[in-house]
Amino acid sequence: MPLSEFEKRELDLISNALESEDPRLAALLNKDAFAVSLRTRFRRGLALVAAGAAVLILGLVVRVPLLGIAGFAVMNGAAYWAIKDLRWSLRTTNRHATQLEGNSE
Question: Which of 7, 39, 63, 104 could be joined to 3 by an S-S link, Cβ 3.0–4.6 Å?
């Protein structure tokens, strides 16, 4: 059920009062406490890919196929997890688009 206009205004007043009263708390509440930055996730994913490759090689050396399969699965899962939220774009920056529109910023 959507909020009424009165409720939206009251929430805006409360949030503005909170921001003016305690800006650090407001900034903390605006952030997702469990969010991990993309750079951190990418680094952890690369470490897990390396660990999966090591387990895969270990499985080949000791001739245990299930260990190699497990290493391969860890390696692929970690690679997917590391790059799933990366945004691949051909555009390098948004500055180029604003210069085409005539803005000199």
Answer: 7
Contact 54, 70 (CB under 8 A): no
Say whether pTM exceeds 0.85.
Answer: no
Q: How many domains does the chain have?
A: 2
Domain that includes residue 94, residue range: 36-105
What is each CA distance from 11 to 19, 20, 27, 31, 52, in whole angstroms?
Answer: 12, 14, 16, 18, 48
Q: How far apart are alpha carbons 51 and 55 in whole angstroms?
A: 6
Q: What is the pLDDT of residues 45-81, one digit of tens each?
A: 999 999 999 999 999 999 999 999 999 999 999 999 9
